[in-house]
Design brief:
Number of domains: 1
Pathway: Bacterial outer membrane biogenesis; lipopolysaccharide biosynthesis; Carbohydrate biosynthesis; 3-deoxy-D-manno-octulosonate biosynthesis; 3-deoxy-D-manno-octulosonate from D-ribulose 5-phosphate: step 2/3
Helix content: 25-40%
Number of helices: 10
CATH architecture: Alpha-Beta Barrel
Protein name: 2-dehydro-3-deoxyphosphooctonate aldolase
CATH class: Alpha Beta
Number of strands: 13
Strand order of the largest sheet: 1-2-3-4-5-6-9-12
Structural class: alpha/beta
Organism: Helicobacter canis NCTC 12740
Radius of gyration: 17 Å
Largest sheet: 8 strands, parallel, barrel
CATH superfamily: Aldolase class I
Mean pLDDT: 93
Distance between the termini: 34 Å
Order of helices and strands: EHHEHEHEHEHHEEEHEEEHEEH
Low-confidence stretches: none
Shape: globular
EC number: 2.5.1.55
Keywords: Cytoplasm, Lipopolysaccharide biosynthesis, Transferase
Length: 278
């Protein structure tokens, strides 16, 4: 099993793509728009899309094409574009088929303490990204990481142990009253003591349940938070994107438009390079 993060290679990990699979044509169009990242030698791109959004606010909300159809579409993106893949898991029985197609299996924030789910993924060859729950103390994410590490024969949740066993953690904001999130940048530093850390730019500006039966958000704040996280220092970024966010079937309100990504990443890399040059 390859390491998800190799701290000495100085590459930034990028998880990027649409929130949910809407169609194969949608995936292809977004994948084509991300080729500028795939060509960079200072980052590692993982194309992200969910085959099922199992935690939507309303029963009527669009969820996706499902496991079988979704994996076939993701597999075609890997074949046609040469991208590595990341997608969410919701139930333990999905771990084995997911690991046959995707490179990283993501534990959703609401499920970050689900032991059986984490262990099921750890028993596969896939790397694991565990998103910090909006309700979690960042210090306690050590134990979620340890569930995966120990299931793979590890014993200590240090930064190097976590990367060795293909485990990383993602910050995506914390509940701040009802229907709002706030990012405590200290959590990036705290969690990075025992695991590589990804910053989820777009879910951090989400407003859960504030869209009349669905989540809303304010994407205008996303670039500011991305630049702030780059200045703090992280191992990678998670960004959801769409060519038409206003008409996306999930989380469009907090997405960054595909056409705006090159400028944002230029800023992120400029900040990172300035830090590394010190």
């Amino acid at each position: 099993m390859a390491e998800i993060f190799q701290p000495n290679n100085n590459k930034l990990t990028i998880f990027c793509g649409p929130c949910v699979i809407e169609s194969l044509e949608q995936l292809q169009r977004i994948a084509a728009g991300l080729e500028f990242l795939h060509k960079r030698d200072d980052c590692e791109l993982y194309f992200k899309a969910s085959f099922d959004k199992a935690n939507r606010t309303s029963l009527e909300s669009y969820r996706g094409p499902g496991l079988d159809k979704g994996l076939k579409m993701l597999e075609s993106i890997k074949r046609d574009f040469g991208y590595k893949l990341i997608t969410d898991i919701h139930e333990s029985h999905q771990a084995a088929p997911l690991a046959e197609v995707v490179d990283v299996v993501q534990i959703p924030a609401f499920l970050c303490r689900q032991t059986d789910l984490i262990v099921a993924v750890a028993k596969t060859k896939a790397q694991i990204n565990i998103k910090k729950g909006q309700f979690m103390n960042p210090k306690d994410m050590r134990y979620s990481a340890l569930k995966a590490i120990k299931s793979r024969g590890g014993t200590e949740a240090s930064y190097l142990e976590s990367s060795k066993y293909g485990v990383c953690l993602t910050e995506r904001g914390s509940s701040f009253g009802y229907g709002n999130l706030v990012v405590d940048m200290r959590s990036l530093v705290i969690m990075r003591e025992f695991a590589p850390v990804i910053f989820d730019v777009t879910h951090s500006v989400q407003m859960p349940g504030m869209g009349g039966g669905k989540s809303s958000g304010d994407s205008s704040f996303a670039p500011y938070l991305a630049r702030a996280a780059a200045a703090v220092g992280v191992d990678g970024f998670f960004i959801e994107t769409h060519y038409d966010p206003a008409n996306a079937l999930s989380d469009g309100a907090n997405m960054i438009a595909l056409e705006k990504l090159p400028t944002l990443f230029d800023e992120i890399f400029a900040i990172r390079n300035a830090l590394n040059a010190r």
